Amino acid sequence: MKQLHVDIAVIGAGTAGLAAYRAAKAAGKTAVVIEGGAYGTTCARVGCMPSKLLIAAADAAHELRHTAPFGVHVDGEIRIDGREVMDRVRRERDRFVGFVVRGVDGIPAEDKLEGYARFVDNTLLEVDDTRVHASRVVIATGSSPAIPSPFKALGDRLIVNDDVFSWEALPESVAVFGPGVIGLELGQALSRLGVRVKVFGVRGGVGPLSDPAIRDYARIAFQQEFYLAPDADVKEMRRDGNKAVLRFVDLNGEEVTESFDYVLAATGRSPNVQNLGLENTSLTRDARGVPLFDPDTLQCGKSPIFIAGDANNVLPLLHEAADEGKAAGENAARYPKVLPLNRRAPIAVVFSDPQIMMVGQRFADLNANEIAVGEVSFEDQGRSRVMLKNRGLLHVYADKATGRFLGAEMIGPRAEHIAHLLAWSYQSQLSIDAMLAMPFYHPVVEEGLRTALRDAAAKLAV
Known about the structure:
The protein is α/β, with parallel strands linked by helices. The chain has helices spanning 15-26, 42-46, 48-65, 82-105, 161-164, 181-192, 212-223, 318-334, 382-386, 415-427, 432-436, 446-461; strands at 2-11, 31-35, 112-114, 117-121, 124-127, 130-139, 143-145, 158-159, 173-177, 196-200, 227-229, 233-240, 243-249, 255-260, 262-265, 269-271, 305-307, 347-350, 355-360, 371-377, 393-399, 405-412. Helix 3 packs antiparallel against helix 4 (82-105). Belongs to the class-I pyridine nucleotide-disulfide oxidoreductase family.
């Protein structure tokens, strides 16, 4: 068996793994990155980028159908060619993946090892016919879609988001389970592209929202466009030939049976740690098999093993994976003198229409007696009405004792941009008054944010 000796072994060549490798090399350490699958990050292959390509096509179709209120009439049938839609999605997706692969190609051959790594002990890995002796290890193996066992009865009628981007054409019908980020984005996009869609959830959730008022507004807004049951009562799911058959109680309280070409399980993701041989290490693991670790330093116990990115499931977002990978690589390089990760302001965006965003602390995690809530509806907001994008509600949360901005939740127009303004404000620890002292141009959607801030300031003054 071949023997390889390095300072740091990084398992996984996704966003976190590549960042960890580069940080280790920048610290002057020898390092190897180990990858058993295809190169290219989750975001580029099956996540944020291909989903936005599908959403862009859906938005184009939707806008064409809604020009008449402006006095602009599109005569004739609007034809959606599913094969052309999916061809562009795959072509552009492959282009994004190519950028990542070219970055990997720039890594010296001696620093790359293809194959699946398994721990023999804390610092010894086996990768096919190679034993890797490392002083420290970074686990950056990403995550995979989690499939609840009842869905297995659907056989090949069951798909995950990874499968959608391999389609050559659009199906006639899809049932989506899970109205979270992935389910909402793909469900609405497929509906706008002419696919018959029904979205089912549990416990009433809509996206990542925790503020009941914002969540209720979102539910109603989406239900006006496509079938959404956030707290669905599904009695049975089975496969019948080339169809998935669901028996459920509909929104009118009636039990119905309906067939779909596919069932899309957008029911969360699980860290890829099952086949790493972690039972051979000294690490204590949780019920999912994930090593217990310090979220500030990413260190697993007191061991020389670190875990970063989607594999630890703290904040499964690309920018967080990059930050965590860099921190894990740096801490592996300086081990045992590790330092805490300086996390950025929490920020989340759902690219639905209207868009959803959350910044800072969630409403559910705040004490309602200690905050002032500033509100604005976008239904009468000037620029939003001009664009006929006047659907939305924003809440901003402020500390009654200090006046500091604590967080926000929103559904509405241009939420992706407002989220960044608020994330910068949160990270800068600004007060509501300081935010109101900033410039607001006219007429822009951001004037709605100013209205919410003024409402919060008035409530703070009481």
